[in-house]
Write a sequence for this structure.
């Protein structure tokens, strides 16, 4: 159905976070409403399409204004923060490795905390590179991460600390 | 702006009032809301999807409604329901309207007498 396809394309006018939550629902609701209106006379269907177009343009502008003027914490009550979402194809263990390592235990030697932070940073960089389809970059970070992890293991052995499972 | 009090004291806009009314008795999904609002307003108000979802997002932001995943096998998975804060706001708005109607009726009566 052509109007539905055009509608889906026009949804790209909305901010990313809004689309992530509502785009599928909106296009489903549009399809259902369009199917119903199509059964009515021609002018009613044209009127429906025009009102949908106007609603979409006004809605998208309002959402951009809201995105620029609303604090991220307030906006986070209704929309997901895309930076916090695990990108598709990235294993859960890898994605959360950074979060687990980022809370430093102050009782540990500084050298060890630094090594853990470096592993965490490299994992995050690798994930970011994968999410952005920068595969050579991801490979480089993966190699660096392997070396950093080996260094971390040596330090943990020296400090008689159990290996971190990740 | 603080949670639950966005338009405190301000009258609700018609789409927002109709959405809250529509969710007052049972949870609804997007298209269900559009249809119900049309019925509630006797065909006078037809919300476009852009207007509806913009209003839903703002209502989620002030926590007057909640989004949840329906367990049934219907095509619509995501649905919306009223929160206690939303119900409170709806009651306050209806009280305000009742008060206004009473005042308007009293004025008209005085004029007719």
């Amino acid at each position: 159905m052509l109007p539905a396809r055009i509608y889906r394309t026009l949804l790209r006018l909305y901010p990313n976070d809004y689309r992530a939550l509502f785009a599928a629902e909106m296009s489903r609701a549009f399809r259902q409403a369009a199917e119903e209106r199509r059964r009515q006379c021609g002018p009613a269907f044209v009127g429906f399409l025009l009102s949908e177009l106007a609603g979409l343009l006004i809605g998208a502008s309002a959402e951009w204004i809201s995105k620029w003027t609303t604090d991220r914490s307030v906006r986070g009550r209704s929309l997901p923060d895309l930076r916090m979402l695990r990108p598709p194809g990235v294993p859960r263990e890898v994605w959360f490795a950074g979060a687990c390592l980022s809370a430093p235990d102050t009782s540990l030697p500084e050298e060890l905390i630094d090594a853990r932070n470096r592993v965490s940073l490299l994992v995050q960089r690798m994930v970011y590179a994968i999410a952005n389809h920068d595969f050579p970059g991801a490979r480089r970070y993966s190699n660096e991460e392997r070396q950093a992890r080996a260094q971390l293991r040596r330090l943990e052995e020296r400090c008689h600390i159990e290996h971190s499972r990740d | 702006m603080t949670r639950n009090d966005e338009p405190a004291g301000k009258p609700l806009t018609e789409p927002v009032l109709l959405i809250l009314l529509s969710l007052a008795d049972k949870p609804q999904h997007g298209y269900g809301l559009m249809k119900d609002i049309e019925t509630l307003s006797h065909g006078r108000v037809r919300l476009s999807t852009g207007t509806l979802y913009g209003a839903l997002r703002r209502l989620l932001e002030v926590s007057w409604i909640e989004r949840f995943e329906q367990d049934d096998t219907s095509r619509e998975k995501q649905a919306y329901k009223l929160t206690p804060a939303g119900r409170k706001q709806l009651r306050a708005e209806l009280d305000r309207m009742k008060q206004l109607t009473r005042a308007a009726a009293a004025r008209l009566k005085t004029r007719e007498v």
The radius of gyration of chain B is 16 Å. The CA atoms of residues 23 and 82 of chain B lie 6 Å apart.
